[in-house]
Amino acid sequence: MSVTRNLMFNAYSGAIAALTAVVAHKVVDTLWTVVTGEEPPQPNDPDTPPNKAFAWVLANAIGIGVLGVAANRFAASRWKKFSGEELPHARSVSLKL
């Protein structure tokens, strides 16, 4: 894949990821309010009970993570249909301890 195509894919997938992060945060906020009947807590506020703060962080991590994977898969499939090219391969990093 040429450098230009690689940059185009990175810009496209970055835009999809940014949009997904905003939408995912709103979805998690709304679901929290619907399920608990309360506004989402401020996890860094010392007055927020630790169990509520950790539950909120966990809900955010799961929600944004799942929607992020879905967005990446969507971006990759649309890119392949649009360009007919394989996706740029991500470099993997292996850490040895």
Overview of this structure, please?
The protein has 97 residues and is mainly alpha-helical. Helix 1 runs antiparallel to helix 2. The radius of gyration is 18 Å and the shape is elongated. The C terminus is likely disordered.
Measured between the Cα atoms of the first and last residue, the distance is 34 Å
Q: Given the structure, what is the number of helices? A: 2
Approximate strand percentage = under 5%
Mean pLDDT: 83
General form: elongated
The main sheet comes to:
none
Radius of gyration, in angstroms, nearest whole number: 18 Å
Helix content: over 70%
Poorly predicted runs of 5 or more residues: 91-95
Number of strands: 0
Structural class: mainly alpha
Order of helices and strands: HH
The gist of it:
70% of the residues lie in helices and 0% in strands. The chain is mainly alpha-helical and 97 residues long.
Descriptive terms for the model:
single chain; 97 residues; mainly alpha; 0% strand; disordered C terminus
Layout of strands and helices, then pairs:
Layout: H1 3-36, H2 50-83
Helix pairs in contact: 1-2
